[in-house]
Amino acid sequence: MFLLPTIFFIAVFIIYPICTSINLSFVKWNGVDAAKKFIGFGNWEELLRDVVFWRAVKNNFTIVILSICTQIPIGLFIAILMDIGGKRFKIFKTVYFFPMLMSSVAIGILFIYIYDPQFGLVTNFLNAVGLDSLVRDWLGDPGIALYSVIAVICWQYIPFYMVLFSAAMTSIPSELFEAAYIDGASRRHYYVGIVIPMLKGSVRTAAVLSLVGSLKYFDLIYVMTGGGPVDSTELMATYMYKNAFASFRMGYGSTVAVALFVIVTAFSLLVFSAIRKEEQG
Fold first, then answer.
1. CA 159, 163, 165, 166 torsion: positive or negative?
2. How many of the other CB atoms lie within 10 Å of CB of 34?
3. pLDDT tens digit string along 192-232?
4. How far apart are CA 46 and CA 36, in angstroms?
5. Each residue of 103-112: b (16+ CB within 10 Å) or e?
6. Which of 232, 257, 259, 228 is nearest to 244 (CA)?
7. 3-state secondary structure of 217
8. Rg value, the chain, Cα
9. Residue 281, pLDDT above cutoff 80
10. Pairing mode, strands 37-38 and 27-28
11. Which of 168, 197, 194 shows the shortest CA–CA distance to 183?
12. Which of 38, 91, 120, 235 has its CA 20 to 30 A from that of 32?
């Protein structure tokens, strides 16, 4: 009986929308008219041949790899620095967390101006230090636009992993540090040999969160580039939105949404399965 309210909201806000999206993936519908034309697997056949969709998939996995390889190590490094500093660095922990408190839309607009090739902060800095040859159209060059946005994503989410690892470090008994110090271990040996291995569970959790979040990413990309230029920053979520709500192809947009759901679920299950096997092994 106590679970009934939870089951009700899960059914209404999760299960029903998923089932509706699956049903819409088999029809041709503009999202406005009452009439829906059943076309079977027509949307899915188009999806398999859609070059833009597969480019979006590639971009999503690029974000996954670079996010995991950047956010988690830097977040762990900052957490260790905060732990070493103790209460003296408490103010820095608060300041470093500011990006997580900002709206993604506000961050996107802010970095559009920072990346401006004429008057932006990055361009002015490179000109000031004599590196004007490195100035680029950071959001307008298809070759670097995605990496420019990934840098902003990492800047926004590194504080989250810093707090995650800092919280995990508080559960490590102080007696371990005292014992290591008595045995002659340096601070570096303590963190490398004791702290980091004990944070293995938190690192796994962070990797899963980064994986799922990167595959579903939408807002910052949409604000900063809208998926351009030339689809170089297109993601599955932005491509789904454009088809469903901008091009009024609700059926095909639902197909992209279901494909996104399947990909995220499959990779999440694979990661959880690998983690479970490692823990049992």
1. positive
2. 5
3. 888 888 888 888 889 888 888 888 889 899 999 999 899 99
4. 18
5. ebeebbebbb
6. 257
7. coil
8. 23
9. no
10. antiparallel
11. 194
12. 235
